[in-house]
From TrEMBL:
Alphabetically ordered keywords of this record: Signal
Organism: Patellaria atrata CBS 101060
Record keyword Protease present: no
Family matches, as Gene3D superfamilies: alpha/beta hydrolase
One Pfam family in the UniProt entry: Abhydrolase_6
PANTHER family according to UniProt: HYDROLASE ALPHA/BETA FOLD FAMILY, PEROXISOMAL MEMBRANE PROTEIN LPX1
Descriptive protein name: Alpha/beta-hydrolase
Limits of the AB hydrolase-1 domain: 113-383
Keyword Cytoplasm: no
Signal peptide: 1-23
């Protein structure tokens, strides 16, 4: 991580669509937007896959078994260690500044990182954008925003699902932050005075990784779909509920990914893990399924396993313990939130988890830690009922913190 070489190529997409019929790469309401493709060179300490790669879905069934077994902490070791690797990855995203400038808020850039199972469209729904589109909400309030396809999703580069993982994604996000802060990353877009990272789920974990390693390059954090006190079996339950299969056997549109990429078996597996009745519209789940993206098995396991000898599924807990030991500093403010009935990070019930106020101990030096449980919905807070209620909480938080 001594140096990051960042080059940037941007191209402007100019298109005018009638309201309600917008192409994915088009302008967003209230913003001046550019789709960009950015090659980024980073060095990261990556886990090295140590098992045979998947030939077929019987191999996937076997690994699901190994992850779920009661003694997996002792019996299951997918990685054989770590290795420092330097590589250049192509990341595609969309950067927008607000059409109407308000109180110089355009100088604050929100960098939004989506979670497992989606691509950048998680933040910018074309289904009922007034109800589900965070990007347009942020632009309306006057913030600039960059939202991108995490490595291996959407239009960004696809590397093997056995090597795509948290470590390289943390470095990529850090490089984006540095580039946007110093300017010159994208022609026509100068530097931004303040950078606030907004994450969902896995995107919140990468965001936390950046905050941990490079606390001085960010000014604020909004972490959604995260709780910091997962039940011991959270990882096992999540993977079982996804019922994942090799992505290209689920949908031929994923044939540009290797067998390390897994997809929800069907829309109902997706609904079980991200939604809670009665607080969703089936139309919103159908849209979410239409933008679903596979995840790399190493992405999943790198979050939940600390190393070849470490106990599986202690990952986040270890992170929290380590943070305490190292007196982890984030001299900034953060909002931590998820849905009340989040299966993935709370085992299905978040009020009691948030009552423990764990986030405050994970970020002991933060100036402000605001925990918030959004009523009624599951893990996929952007597509649950009253998503705009959550956006209001986020915007209030940002305004109160002076952004
Ligand atoms: C990777 O590089 C870091 C920083 O130089 C070093 O601390 C670490 O031990 C290296 N890891 C491996 C596996 O070589
Ligand atoms: C939507 O969320 C906001 C923010 O928590 C809350 O104040 C409001 O009561 C919610 N509305 C409904 C209809 O649940």
């Amino acid at each position: 991580m001594l140096s990051h070489l960042i080059a940037a190529v941007g191209f402007l997409i100019i298109s005018l669509f009638p309201e309600g019929v917008r192409s994915e790469s088009a302008q967003y309401q209230g913003g001046i937007c550019k789709d960009v493709s950015i090659p980024i060179t980073v060095t990261s300490e990556n886990f090295v896959w140590g098992l045979p790669t998947f030939k077929d879905n019987f191999d996937v069934a076997e690994i699901l078994f190994e992850v779920a077994r009661d003694d997996s902490a002792e019996a299951f070791h997918p990685f054989i260690g770590t290795r420092n690797e330097t590589a250049t990855y192509r990341i595609e995203g969309t950067v927008c500044t607000p059409m109407v400038k308000t109180q110089q808020r355009e100088n604050t850039l929100l960098i939004a990182t989506h979670g497992l199972g989606y691509d950048r469209r998680y933040w910018a729904s074309t289904y009922k954008p007034k109800d589900y589109n965070f990007v347009e909400k942020a632009l309306k309030i006057g913030y600039s925003i960059f939202f991108y396809d995490r490595l291996g999703t959407g239009k960004s580069q696809k590397i093997s699902g056995f090597s795509n993982q948290l470590a390289n994604q943390v470095e990529l996000l850090a490089a984006l932050c540095k580039g946007f802060r110093s300017g010159g990353l994208i022609p026509g877009f100068g530097s931004f005075k303040q950078i606030v990272l907004v994450g969902h789920s896995y995107g919140s974990s990468s965001t936390q990784g950046v905050a941990q390693k490079y606390p001085d390059i960010i000014d604020g954090l909004v972490l959604t779909g995260i709780a910091y006190y997962p039940p011991p079996d959270a990882g096992k339950i999540t993977l079982e509920a996804f019922a994942p299969r090799i992505a290209k056997t689920v949908d031929p549109q994923f044939s540009d990914r290797d067998n390390g990429y897994l997809a929800f078996r069907d829309i109902h597996a997706h609904a079980q893990t991200f939604f809670k009745q009665p607080n969703y519209e089936i139309g919103a789940v159908e849209y979410a399924q239409s933008i679903a993206n596979p995840f790399g098995i190493a992405e999943f396991l790198s979050l939940f396993i600390g190393g070849s000898n470490a106990s599986p599924f202690l990952g986040p807990v270890l992170v929290s313990l380590l943070s305490k030991l190292l007196c982890f500093q984030v001299l900034t403010s953060l909002l931590v939130t998820t849905g009340e009935f989040d299966l993935i990070v709370c085992g299905g019930e978040c009020n009691s988890v948030f009552a423990r106020d764990i986030a405050r101990s994970v970020f002991p030096r933060a100036s402000v830690v605001e925990p918030y449980v959004h009523p009624g919905v599951g893990h996929g807070v952007n597509f649950g009922k009253n998503a705009t209620g959550l956006y209001d909480v986020i915007i209030d938080f940002l305004e109160n913190q002076g952004f």
